Amino acid sequence: MATERQKLVIQRQINGINHCRQILVPTKGEFRKGFVLISINQFNIEQERVVLLTKKSYWRVKYNFDTKSIERSEETPLSEVTHIEKGYFKYPKLSLTKVFDVGAQKQYGVRIYRKQAEANGVMLDGETVGIRESVNPLKKMQPFRTFRALDCVTYEYGREVINDLCAAFQEALEAIAPDSGFYVSECPLVRSDVIGPFSAVLNAWQVGHYNKDLIDDDDDWDEPVVKKEKKPKKEKKEKEKAQEAEEAAAQFEQEAEMAAQTALPESDDEDKPAEEAEEQAVEPEAESKPDAEVEGEMVEPETEAVIEAEPEAEVAAVETEVAQVEVAQAEADEEEEGLEL
């Protein structure tokens, strides 16, 4: 089911094809099919062109979709078309353009070859064009025209458009010259790299495109295009700042909750060593008490008096023994004196 955007683009292309047909192919029954394609010239510049296929020739038309006018046209008889090559594009191995134009290598294109190419009176018969001749814009020496589908379609649909073009050419040529030897082959199409990466820049700017207000490089055609109202830059910046502040606040709250959750088990662990230290401090106090105090707490008052009296009796007995020893010594001294006399 086509969206409004698709319908608008398709209708604009159909109107352009019909206008070109009315001017260039006025004879009834001559027109076969029309396409809006991207033509790639010898400088690798992409240009939007209308291709009209008739019973005897095909037209390459530069049509201005804005002013609805034909700016330039070129007719090539089908009798001069030798063969068609179709395939995916690629750049030469040593080309820098392929680094800047990655999308071109995903596109599917077609190259229509002709017998003769005129350039200042020189006739070429399918020969390869040299670089020196190709850089001269006054010499159209390429014996072929290169096309691809528009950017508004997906790569897969672009391939279908090219296959449809090849089938239309083959049918038209078989109708006028069955034994012409015309054929369609599939091979990689090498794009020109005459001006280098500058061609990729010009193609990115869509030079030569008239449908760029309706067509872009997005492949998402399922969603309708809704025109967004342009908001002032200040409001946009304020909105972005408010959004950033909300995100920062939410992140801060989340971090605070995580910190609170992790802090609870740590506080319990901190209290445990304090309690253990208090218990250890109490234990030495109990151990440092004298045995006498501990034992005294368990002894009755009467036994305490007996315990205090026992040392006094022992002191008295010792004093008595000392007195007796002194008396005995004195008697011994007196006997010795008597003997001497």
What features would you describe in this structure?
This protein folds into 2 domains: 4-204, PH-domain like, CATH 2.30.29; 291-340. The longest helix has 56 residues, at 233-288. A hairpin with a 5-residue loop joins strand 1 and strand 2 (46-54). The strands form 2 sheets. Strands 1, 2, 3, 4, 5, 6, 9, 10 and 11 form a 9-stranded mixed sheet that branches. A two-stranded antiparallel sheet has the order 7-8. The chain is built from 8 helices and 11 strands. With 341 residues, it is of the alpha+beta class. It has helices at residues 4-24, 97-100, 131-134, 155-176, 198-204, 233-288, 291-298, 301-340, and strands at residues 31-40, 46-54, 57-64, 69-77, 81-90, 108-114, 116-119, 122-125, 144-148, 183-186, 189-190. Residues 15-112 form the Inositol phosphatase domain. It comes from Carpediemonas membranifera. One of its GO terms (cellular component) is cytoplasm.
User: Whole-number radius of gyration?
Assistant: 55 Å
The number of helical segments is 8
Name the shape in a single word: rod-shaped
Averaging pLDDT over every residue, what do you get?
76
CATH-defined superfamily of the largest domain: Pleckstrin-homology domain (PH domain)/Phosphotyrosine-binding domain (PTB)
**Strand segment tally:** 11
Strand content: 15-25%
Order of helices and strands: HEEEEEHEEEHEHEEHHHH
Cα end-to-end separation: 163 Å
Please bin the fraction of helical residues. Answer: 40-55%
Please identify the structural class as seen in this structure.
alpha+beta
